[in-house]
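HUMAN: Mind sharing a backbone?

ASSISTANT:
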Amino acid sequence: NNDGGIMARAADPAAAGPGEDLLQLSFFPIYGVGNMWTSLDGGGRPQSGNRLGWEAHRWLQMERRGDAFHFRTSADGERWTELPGSPVLREDLRGLPLQVGPFHAMYSDAAGWISYDLFRITVRD
């Protein structure tokens, strides 16, 4: 249950209301999931994946447009596919500054690792 990818969270979690206030896009091939987005906002944990399993895409893209967060993946870094259920609307994050970066999680006491390459953050007004 080794999970990793990119995450965006409210820089000030109290400003977005109760809960974790984060979104993530991950490479999670176990159980046939593939790539998956997750949204945590204190009211639940909706998730959706592309069911690619171990053929999951290694290129991940998260884009914020107003209240909408788009989750896309790519096998080659050139042709992008929106994940099922994307975009995700997060009105609680409207106008709030975000912390953005890579994440890694283990859901057991086993050791695990993820390698990141060509990580880039683009900010446009």
Observations:
- DSSP finds no helices and nine strands in the chain.
- The chain has a mean pLDDT of 91.
